[in-house]
Structure formats: structure tokens, C-alpha cells
Amino acid sequence: MKPYIQAENLSKRWGELLLFEDISFTVFEGQKVALIAKNGTGKSTLLDLLAGKETPDNGLITLTNDIKTGYFEQIPHLNPNNTVIEEIFEAENEQLKTIKAFELAVAHNNQEEITAISSKMDELNAWTFEVEIKQILTQLKISFLEQKVSELSGGQKKRLALAKILIDKPDLLILDEPTNHLDLEMIEWLEDYLDKTKATLLMVTHDRYFLDRVCNEILEMEDNQIYRYLGNYSYFLEKREERIEMQQASVAKAKNLLRTEIEWMRRMPQARSHKAKYRINAFYDLQNKASHNFRENKVDIGIQSARLGKKIVELENVSKSYPGVRLIENFSYKFQRFEKVGIIGKNGTGKSTFLNVISNSITPDSGKVDIGETIKYGYYRQDGISFNPKEKVIEAVQKIAEFIQFEDGTKMSATQMLTRFLFPPETQYNFIEKLSGGEQRRLYLCTVLMQNPNFLILDEPTNDLDIMTLNVLEDYLKAFGGCVVIVSHDRFFMDKIVDHLFVFEGEGKIIDFPGNYTIYRNKLEEEQERVKIKEKARQEGKSVAHVNKSIADKKKLSFSEKREFEQLEKEIPELENQALELEKLLNTGNLPHDKLYEKALELDKIKTLLDEKEFRWLELSELG
Asked: What is the CATH number of the domain that holds 145?
């Protein structure tokens, strides 16, 4: 395999902070590599070095000649004066230039130009590329082509930057958190796109499903070393655990040997000159090895939650709209103790508005939101970080409380609390502006949780958090003694935490689905398959409920098969009606959890039976 990019003995400091030192690795042609490391260890800085945006303090980066690199940054750099279409076609690529000229000619209805450019489109085989470009723009919901870049939201800019890089078709794709600000549908499309692309890939992501399905190699940066794992995320977890166990065993062995060596080194000073120099050097190496601590630093969160009364939050016929947009329509629901709800839906369907309604941040147009007297919200907002950058880390926490109460009744000082959140004493007096994006989010999470909430609202909590922090946050949420409502595009995170989903389908419609995201996605695929079956029957001039041909004309059917066919025609519409009634009942929001679960199982059985009978109906209809 040809090496595309090589890093040799790279070192980088940010002021007094050492990010990494003497790290080396190579990315070869065709590989799809993920870089994993804790927040604050310089992942984004490392990508900047590899993309040529920054220079290392020491070390060498070698990029193979004649390969084109595309770099997707967390904060994209776009020309604010360009329109979206100008930004997309800015790359130095003859096909793109020709397609841009063609699109502009079409936009201005210049028939002479269209004719002239069409021949060049043929010559460059650009028509297929144009179709691919339109697919990328459609999937990333980029339809605002004449809008100025300066007028776009942060999320729109990120999607535009991603589209621009994919359209440019680089040989080496470097992606820094590409799934942030994408909805679930876009993530699944990008997952499939990157899985099929022939481009070499190096990316940083915390989306574990995405990482597992796209990458075939993982580089872990820890303790100024690079560990290489030739496999996906599942393989990485297994082998990483083996590595840590081996290192711990090695440390234990070194400690036993060290006891003997210490006695040897403590002998009379006058005898020191007779000691072998190699053994003295080996002693210091052994001492260093024995003192190494391979136990993971983890964010250990056990903050006490306020007492939860019988009444939680109750919504009755709640509606909310904005001019031209209906977000919530006549929605009713009673939250129950300890439940954990995930919220999914396309961008702009009202997810964040719903969070603001249930937290009493905004008032619904109609309906009632009744909040229990004991409810104490903890609201982690997507854009909620509002620290003073010139403030010190410890000061931000002490503003909330000097001491924090824990579940077991013990207290902890703000300093101890920050240490638990992986802010050691030496960093607690640093200014917040020196923290990485992920570290600032971890600090923000700390300030939300330490306010002792019993109803947690988390709006995209996983953005910019490293995988290690996510694992511990998941453990905390599973054991949390209150209610949790989560909006997240992280499917792995949702699958581990939530009991059921509120699915925002648009036009104010909200479905209460009993299960996690993967269960929902599987059901959706089953529904799509069922629609295909019905569409096939319709195109063939057949109907499940009515058949144009008389059963008597079906010469290939046996007598028993004709009877079965007639019976299926009666049973299928009945089952469809039963499924419809159950779906309506589940969507009312009035069922207690035990009944909700019971009816969901009943609906699942009916739909499975319906699938079987429709497949059988198709088989028999083919014989006719």
C-alpha cells in the first residue's frame, strides 16, 4: 500500500500546555482511519498539522506527491461574500467549472450558452457528476443556492462546507467531527457514502455507530503514544481492554522487581562505583515503569438529585406554531418517574421548541403545561455555554456552589468536584479560554449536573465530548433518579439510555414510539418494505382487498389455495384496521407505561402477522 501521509516524531505545545510529543503514524492509500483520544489532548490540532493549517514545534509531516486533500474543520472557513452556489463551485476542477457554467446558463435561461456548454459536458463526462452533486446537495438539505454564505446559520455553514469537500472528490479526506449538526437521516446517508467511497479517510468522531460502520482502523492517542488497531470500533474496545490489562500486569511485575533493585541500589555508597552502569540505568527505567498508572481517569458522577414528587410534568392538548410553521399540534402526555425519553426528527420539526415548552421557557399557543411542585430542571442547551473566557475554571464552578451533596450524603468541594470531572488542580486555575471545545462542554455539563436537578433536559449533549466521557455520562444517566429528556443525533447514546421515543414527523405530528432508535429504525424499514409490496401489487393491477380476476379463473390454484386466497382477502383488511386503531391509541399519550408496552407488543404481533399474510397473498396471486 502507498503511504498517503506520514507523521514522524510530531510535538506541539499550546503556550505552556504540552498537547503531544514525539508521536508517529502513517495513513496508507485506501484506509479509513479514526483517531480517538480524550478531550484536550490535541486531536483537532493534530488534524490542523496534517492538513497544513498549523506547523509542528518538532517533527516532520510527509504528504505523497500529487494527491488532493480535503479538510473538513469543526469551524469551517467559507467566503462570506459568496453565494452558496459560488462557494460550492469554487474548487479548481475543470468538471466543476463546466458544471457551474452550465448551471448559471440554465438559471439565466441562456439557450446559446446551454447548447455550447452541453458539448463540453459530454466531452468531460460531466453529466453523471452533475447528478451526484445534486444528490449530495439534496441529502445535506442544501437548497438555498442563491443565499449569501454570511446569512447562513452555523449548521447550514457546516453542511455547506461538508458538501463542498465531498463534491471536490479529494484523494484524502480529513474530517473533524463530521456528524455534528447533521440530523439522523443525514448521518445515515453520510455513513453509507463514506463506506462506499474510494477516498482514503482520516477522521475524528465520537459517533460510535458511525465509526464502527465506516472505519477499518483506529489510532488511539494516549500518554504521548499512538496505538494502532486494525479493525472497527467493536474490535478496538476488545483489544484496548487487553492492552490495558497487559500494561497493568507489566507494572505489577515491575513493582516486584523494583523491591529487589531498591535493596541493591541502597548498598554502601563506596560500593557504588563497582556497580554495573547498565544495571543502574535499568533501575531507573524499572522505577519509571513501576510508577506508571494505567488506570483510566474517568468522570465519576454521583451527584444527588432533588426529591421527585408524584406529579412530574403533564401536557394537555399543547400546540405551538410560528408563522408558516406548525411544530406541535394538540399533544398530550404525562411524564412518569424515572422515565427516559429520546426525541428524534428532522431539523426544523420542533424538537428544541418542545424542550422549551416543557421547561416553561416559552408558552404554548394553546393547551396546558402543568409542572409538579418538586420539579427542578437541569437544562443542557445546545448553545448554552456562556462562560467568561477570562474567568478561571474554578471560579465558574464556585459561582454555583462551594460544596456539592452526593447520593451517599457526603460532601465534596468545588475543587474536588472538578478533579472528578477530569480537571486536575493544575488546570483549575487556568483561564476558560485555554480549554478545548470538548473541555468547555464537559465543564458546562458539570455546572448543569451540580445544581441538583431531578428533571434533566439534554439538547445535543454529545457534541464535542470524547468517547470516554460519553461512556461515563451514559452510566450516570442510566442510574439517574429522575426524568431525562434527550435530543441527540448520537444513535449509540440514544440506544443505551432511552426507554421510548417522541418522533417528530413534521406539521406538528408527534408519535410516541415504545423502543430505542435501532428498534424504531428497523420498524421503519419494515414499513418501507410493506409499502413496496403493496406498490408492486398495485402496479400489477392487483389489490389486496379486491382482485380484478375472479378466483374461479385462477386455474393454477388448487381448491384449498383458492379458499386460502379468499380468506386472506378478508383477514388482511381486518388486520390493517386493527393496526390502525392500535397506532391511534398509542399516539394519544394517555396510556400508562405498562399498557403502552402491552399495546406496543400487540401492535408488533399484528404487523408481523400482516407481513406474513401479505407475502402469502402475493405468492398465491402470482400463481393466478
From this structure: 3.40.50.300
